[in-house]
Amino acid sequence: GAVVSQHPSWVICKSGTSVKIECRSLDFQATTMFWYRQFPKQSLMLMATSNEGSKATYEQGVEKDKFLINHASLTLSTLTVTSAHPEDSSFYICSARDNFQPQHFGDGTRLSIL
Amino acid sequence: QQQVKQSPQSLIVQKGGISIINCAYENTAFDYFPWYQQFPGKGPALLIAIRPDVSEKKEGRFTISFNKSAKQFSLHIMDSQPGDSATYFCAASRMNRDDKIIFGKGTRLHILP
Fold this sequence. Notes:
Chain A is mainly β. Chain A has no helices and 11 strands.
């Protein structure tokens, strides 16, 4: 089946640093990738949608300059949280999809900013 | 109109019982209704999904019932097991438009051993 790998699974860093999270589709070409944020006991909140080779489309209220998304190939998308602060601590989940197919989700990255 | 309303927020069921989670939507353009299962610290995994041209879909112990006229759909877990304890999300999207998924707020299911 379709597998989406997310790395790292857990990261702790100091306030003010930048953190990069990778999302890879292992056995299919992901024409579209999505990034979500999930707070404890809450639903997934879509942050942005990215298509390979194009600029990401951000949801309302999501800071483009803070959450940099790159979808440089059909199997890799990255989310960089720039100048991270404690309020950015959350569970970040990516998903990937081939044209008009269901989304497949990664296992998430727990980000803790000290 | 983009919302998907899910209930209950939490559910406790005895082992062997039937777990039922309900969802309602407003946008009649939705044409794909998946259910996701999420364990703590993991991403959501697609459990079962249905298109609006059928009223029921069954996969093992999991069944989706779909009522197009009422714009409601539900997940039934038969013979519920402690391993089914997780958070369940219903969702809706427009597959033919390659749209984003709209998630419900989730139901935390706990199966008593």
